[in-house]
Design a protein that fits this description.
The protein is α/β, with parallel strands linked by helices. It is built from five helices and five strands; from the N terminus they run βαβαβαβαβα. About 40% of the residues lie in helices and about 20% in strands. It has a five-stranded parallel β-sheet with strand order 2-1-3-4-5, sandwiched between helices.
C-alpha cells in the first residue's frame, strides 16, 4: 500500500511584523497533527513566500499578520500566486484581523481566516478538508 504524502504547509510572517509567537505555535501544532511545515520566519516579502511555496511544493500557504497590513500584503501574495500558477494551493491568513475585513479578504482570494486565539482543531480540519491535490 502506497504511503500517502503528508500535507505540506509553508507558514510565514509578512512585511515588518516582528511578532511571530503565534506563527511558531501554529507551525508546531500542525506538525503534531502530522503535517510537514516549513516556517520561513520573520520579515518575508510576497515574492519570497511564493518562491518558497514553489520550491517546497506546498499544499498550503499560511501567512500571519499582526501589524494591520493585511490589505497591503495579501493582494500582492495573491497576485504572485496567480502569476506562478498556484491556483491549487490553499491560502490561509491568520493574526489580528477585524471580522469586518473577512468578506473583502475572501473576495480577494483568501480561502480562510483564523484570528489570534483560534483553536487548533478547526484549523487542522479546515486544511485537511480543503486542500486541492
Amino acid at each position: 500500500m502506497a504511503e500517502q504524502k503528508k500535507i505540506k504547509v509553508v507558514i510565514s510572517k509578512v512585511g515588518l511584523d516582528g511578532h511571530d509567537r503565534g506563527a511558531k505555535v501554529i507551525s508546531s501544532l500542525l506538525k503534531e497533527a502530522g503535517m510537514e511545515v516549513v516556517y520561513l520566519g520573520l520579515y518575508q516579502m510576497p515574492e519570497d513566500i511564493i518562491r518558497a511555496a514553489i520550491d517546497e511544493d506546498a499544499d498550503v500557504i499560511g501567512v500571519s499578520c499582526l501589524s494591520n497590513q493585511h490589505f497591503v500584503f495579501v493582494p500582492k501574495i495573491i497576485d504572485e500566486m496567480k502569476k506562478n500558477g498556484l491556483d491549487d494551493v490553499l491560502f490561509i491568513v491568520g493574526g489580528v484581523i477585524s471580522p469586518e475585513d473577512f468578506p473583502t479578504l475572501k473576495e480577494m482570494g483568501v480561502d480562510e481566516i483564523f484570528v489570534a486565539g483560534s483553536l487548533t482543531k478547526p484549523i487542522v480540519e479546515y486544511i485537511r478538508s480543503h486542500i486541492r491535490r
